Amino acid sequence: MPPREETETKEKKGRSLLTVVMLLLILALSGGYVYYFFFGGNRGVTAAPARQAPAVMQKMALEPVVVNLADPGLRRYLRAKITLEYSDTRLTEELNEKLYRIRDTLISVLRSKKTDDLQNEDALKRELLTAINAQLMGGQVQGLYFEEFIVQ
Predict the structure, then answer these.
(1) Core-most of 15, 18, 42, 142, by most CB within 10 Å?
(2) Does residue 97 have a pLDDT over 80?
(3) Separation CA 126–CA 133 (nearest Å)
(4) DSSP secondary structure code for residue 98 in this structure
(5) What is this structure's pTM?
(6) How remote is the C-alpha of 55 from its chain's centroid?
(7) What letters, b where the CB count within 10 A reaches 16 and e where it falls short, cover 90-118?
(8) What is the Cα–Cα distance from 117 to 136, expressed in whole angstroms?
(9) How far apart are CA 141 and CA 31, in angstroms?
(10) DSSP class of 115
(11) Which helix (H) or strand (E) holds 133?
């Protein structure tokens, strides 16, 4: 059996070695955290994003459209003046070039409607927007507004 003093010194050396290793481990983890916080990853404080100016919306007022409605046995007419709204200025040229197609699309969609179908204005606007945007290649129309909507 080894003497008692020898085992005590070995235990002290083992404990001191364990303490040194633990301190180095804590120091390395702390250093890694500080490095990550200040130099890497997502920073704790970020600058507020710069506000972008709202997009300037372009508009195009179309000539009034007059169509017969699809009511059976009744002669009903619809007169609608529509304005289109879009943000891409390059779309103006395409809209002017395809104006005849857009008017034909509007007439076709509106002619297929009955008086009862015109009660849900939002659904009608969505349907017209979808039909118009199907004709366009260089951009999309975001808004459609009725400036005049008369059923007689």
Answers:
(1) 142
(2) yes
(3) 10
(4) T
(5) 0.64
(6) 14
(7) ebeebbeebeeebeebbeebbeebeeeeb
(8) 26
(9) 55
(10) G
(11) helix 121-133
Rounded distance between C-alpha atoms, residue 133 and residue 121, angstroms: 18
Handedness of CA 106, 134, 60, 119 (dihedral sign): positive
Contact of 108 with 135, CB cutoff 8 Å: no
Residue type, 39: F
Within the chain, where are the H helices? 4-39, 91-97, 99-111, 121-133
Q: What pLDDT shows up at residue 91?
A: 94
At 130, the amino acid letter reads: T
Dihedral over alpha carbons 23, 27, 28, 30 (to 10 degrees): 140
Q: How far apart are CA 99 and CA 31, in angstroms?
A: 66
Contact 80, 148 (CB under 8 A): yes
Spatial separation of the C-alpha atoms in residues 33 and 43, rounded to whole Å: 12
Contact 139, 88 (CB under 8 A): yes
Terminal alpha carbon distance of the chain:
116
What's the pLDDT at 39? 73
Q: Is residue 81 pLDDT above 60, yes or no?
A: yes
Contact 150, 64 (CB under 8 A): no
